[in-house]
Amino acid sequence: GDYVKQGQSLVQLDHSLLQLQLQSAEIQIEGLEADVARYTILSESDAIQGVQLEKATLGLKAAKVQKATLAEQIRKTTIVAPFSGYVTMKFTEVGAFAAPGVPLIQITDLELLKFTIQVSENELAPS
Hints:
Blueprint: E1 3-4, E2 9-12, H1 16-44, H2 50-75, E3 78-80, E4 85-90, E5 105-108
Antiparallel strand pairs: 1-4, 2-3, 4-5
Helix pairs in contact: 1-2
């Protein structure tokens, strides 16, 4: 029965494992950035083959993509109201598992509701 506004957070899914994976990706990026900087200096002085720098650079790009993917997954763990309205049904409880395609909450915009009522002529009051 609560009124919710569009964009308001309704459900927060557990994302603790994703947070740990994100931290791991950030640490990996730090190490790869240091490797790229080190290999760049060594490559410029012809102390190493350019292939090592290329591999480190590609590894850094892949780690950044992984970080962006994890950040997007974490962002999607917060379910927000797509429009303003009243919560008319709750299909889940705290601690329950959420699955794609399974509704969690029903919101109804009462301003958009229209009713059709069947009334016979006999039941109408004369004007």
